[in-house]
Structures are given as structure tokens and as C-alpha cells.
User: Fold this.
Amino acid sequence: MNDSSPTRPAPVLDIWCELQCPDCRSALDDIRALRARYGDRLELRLRHFPLEKHKHAFAAAQAAEEAVEQGQGWPYVETVLARVEELDRRGEPFLVEVAGELGLDAEEFDTALVDGRHILIVDADQAEGKAIGVTGTPTYVIGGERLDGGKSQEGLRERIEEIADRLLAEQG
Assistant:
């Protein structure tokens, strides 16, 4: 018997994040744990919400989009977040250097930051975030529920898992 029923799209967890944000770095363990637990049954989507108080955040968001284009979105994001202080100190040269460390086309990163090819994606994310009430990072949205991790990460992963498990169960 041929089961030709279409596979349902995985539930989506939007992670509103800023790559110069120490709280987002703290969230890395939760993000890794969620990825390990759900694999491709839960789509983790990085959404950009650069904050004005961090002067390299907007460039970092653009660099992350270039990393996605080059097939290394999450590894790049995790590497930059793990070294937030270095981004604070060094700015754009650091973003290009990380690309090279990960074996990405660093020259293309440099060009992307100069020509601004990813600005529209970052701007659109930021506008959508503001429209749904995101005020800080990290903020998670899953199953229509917004969870603010900027004040405290306490209990957030458990709450996300509860919602994800429910959404997956509803899919059957």
C-alpha cells in the first residue's frame, strides 16, 4: 500500500534574536536542546530584532542572513553569540573573520555587508517583531504564544516543549 498522504509542515518556533545580546547567548543551550530533542519535527526560525543599544547588531543580522544563504546559518549564529564580547570590541571585521573560520566565503560576507543585500530581510523581521509586541531579545513565538526571554530564561524551554508537544500531537 502506498501512503501518499502529504507530510504536514513542522510546527515553527520563531526565535527573535540579536547577535550582540548576552541574553541570546544564554539561550543557546536551550536552542541546542530543542534542536536535539525535535530535529526536523520542529522548525527553529531565526528572526532578527537588532536593538539600537548594540551598534554592531544590525550588521550581525545581515551577516547571519549571508550565512543562511551559504548554508551555515545556525553554526554561524552560535559562533557569533558565543563570542559576544569580541563582536562588541571588533564589529564587522569580526563578523567576516568568523565566516572564514567556518569555511564560508568571507569575501562574499564582506561584500554583503557593504552592498546591504540582506537589509530588507532584517528590516522586515524587525517590523514584524514590533507589530506582534516583541520588545527585547530573546523572544520566542510558537503556536501563537509569545514568550519573553529577555527578563528571564527560567522555565521557557519547558514551556516551549509543552507547546511543541501539543502541536505535534494535534498533527497526529
Remarks:
- The radius of gyration is 17 Å.
- The longest helix spans residues 156-171.
